[in-house]
Specification:
With 85 residues, the chain is of the alpha+beta class. The protein is 39% helix and 25% strand.
Length: 85
């Protein structure tokens, strides 16, 4: 099981990212646990300055944008390199 964290205040973009991540997991056939992180200190602990942020298994995958479902599915299937942020 992969662990996904959506980082952000709960704004519309954060909620959309959560939906896109769930869709990506479904497309990839990968079981995920998705948490929404709204605590500023926890968000900053990842070095994320621009939300929404997406963290997969402890690695920041993207910040400040909503990646496509296919992009997220590839990260779930192949792992995420820290340079994707």
């Amino acid at each position: 099981m992969k662990h996904i964290e959506v980082l952000g205040s709960g704004c519309a973009n954060c909620l959309k990212l959560e939906l896109v991540a769930a869709e990506a997991a479904s497309q990839a056939g990968i079981e995920v646990d998705i948490r929404h992180v709204t605590d500023d200190r926890q968000i900053l602990s990842y070095g994320v300055m621009s939300t929404p942020g997406l963290v997969i298994d402890g690695v920041v995958a993207s910040t400040g944008r909503i990646p496509s479902a296919s992009e997220i599915a590839a990260w779930l299937a192949n792992g995420v390199a820290p340079s994707h942020a």
